[in-house]
Amino acid sequence: MSGISKQATQSCVTASTPGAVGIIQLRGDGVVPVLARLTAVNDWPAGRMRLASLGGVDQGVVVHLREGWAQVMPHGGPRVMQRVSDRLAELGAAYEAEPPARAAYPEAGSDLEADMLACLARAASPAVIDVLLAQPELWRGWVAGGASRERPEGITLQSVALDRLVEPPCVVVVGRPNVGKSTLTNQLLGRAASVVADLPGTTRDWVAGLAELGASEGAGGGVVVRWLDTPGLRRTADPIERRAIELASRVIREADVVVAMRDPPIDWPAPQALYGRQPDVWVLNKIDDAIDTPGADGASPDRALKISGLTGANVARLGRVVLDRLGLTDLVAPRLWAFSAALKSALDRGACDELRRYVNG
Q: What phi, psi does 262 have (nearest 5°)?
């Protein structure tokens, strides 16, 4: 351990998805020696923050928060994060699971507030911020509410939907070849993630990316989903394309929302191509002047949403419909959310005293 006798541990406290900046948290008696070896700077009093070299791997922000606690903030690319973490391990900072939330966030007034801050750090969707920040007051009111409290089963049901703000749900778009699935995917992802051409079988594997839906709706930003563009569903002798379609079948069956797409001359995907899964949203693409049609809510083929993946016409409305299917509309209104394992467990067991201590501190 390079001569370091005091112990230190490290854990990543940012979401697993790539970002501009990542955070690796260090704790233990050996924090200062590790920082000194990593940065080649020996002066690390509590509260000191520097832009420093990170062991020759990257340059980032390093802060010694307080005795036994520090954070190293490199660029958030997965490879950079892994290399910095490996270098920290070489210097004596052993890998560990995420530290207890109350230890990581001593400023929290209760276990609930500490778990809320930990959840904020790993959540994928910007919309989670306002929803989570409302939870301490909502839960204090609930435990004090006696007979007027919202029923636990109702909280559990709405928590299933709200959990999707932390781990992005999966949305899959399916359809026959050349109906515009890839064009819509590129529109939503904001980049050329899918190959676009007027040739059947152009997308030979499913293409995935993170898309933010409803970003202009209400406060707190949008909801991040894993958007998947499947290969065109058709019969083919190409073994590579056939394997891609087989893989897509599993994705379709397990998706949170399936969007079925067609265009004016090309029909809906055949039922057998959906592997027994009923689409949640029906979309008619390549309508360049698409406008809202009364009764067109995407709930069935004859009420299909009209959109243009090329121009973006009505694509925002499609996003709102997908969020409705996920139970993630109207997030501005206060909603109780059992967002932590402790909340879920106490609620399921009816452990009122335990829940009261957890909420009130």
A: -140, 175
